[in-house]
Amino acid sequence: MGSYKKYEIRKRNPNPKTSALLVIDMQNYFSSMAHPILPTLLQTIRLCRRASIPVIFTRHSHKSTGPDSDHGMLAEWRNGDLIIDGTVEAELISELDRKQDDLVVEKNTYSAFRNTGLEEQLRERGVEEVIVTGVMTNLCCETTAREAFVRGFRVFFSTDATATSDEDLHEATLKNLAFGFAYLLDCNTLQEAGLSGNP
Q1: Is the previous residue joined to 26 through a cis bond, with omega within 30 degrees of 0?
Q2: How far apart are CA 135 and CA 173, in angstroms?
Q3: CA–CA separation, 160 and 147 (whole Å)
Q4: Tens of pLDDT, residues 108-140
Q5: Which residue spans within the chain are E strands per DSSP?
Q6: Chain centroid to CA 74: how far?
Q7: Is there a contact between 161 and 44 (Cβ–Cβ < 8 Å)?
Q8: From CA 199, how far away is CA 118, in angstroms rounded?
């Protein structure tokens, strides 16, 4: 397996009664990264739903590319290649198992917590633990995981329902998170932990 295993010295399973699943930025813009993990992500979503774990989606976009827009440093860092709200690229991919009452958090930076009200939503639901899935492993997923940790949430990070543009970057995130921020898990771990709930 991956070399992150040497840093994975802490083991724990999520508590379904106090957990939420975060599905980060599974949008058309990221389809080349999102589609390969779709089977494991959908299985993770199904397992969480069966265990009555709330599923929360995030959607990253910006109002415009102008200098007064909400993109901060991202325009510079992404060479102006931004996801603009209202475009097809900004939409969540159609294959996601979304329900009408699922919360969709709108965000405009790497963190799903910054100026989004996500923390308040989680606290209102009695959530103490988050399971992070989606894209990109090393940007929005990692930043959200780290910020969840410093805000006092126990963090679980999926190794097989997250993805990015490069395996080295994916692996680097898993090493860092296992070392200091998150319990790593995958679909099999969730299933073995009995997270399937009642059939």
Answers
A1: no
A2: 12
A3: 21
A4: 999 999 999 999 999 999 999 999 999 999 999
A5: 19-24, 55-60, 103-107, 129-135, 154-163, 183-185
A6: 19
A7: yes
A8: 30
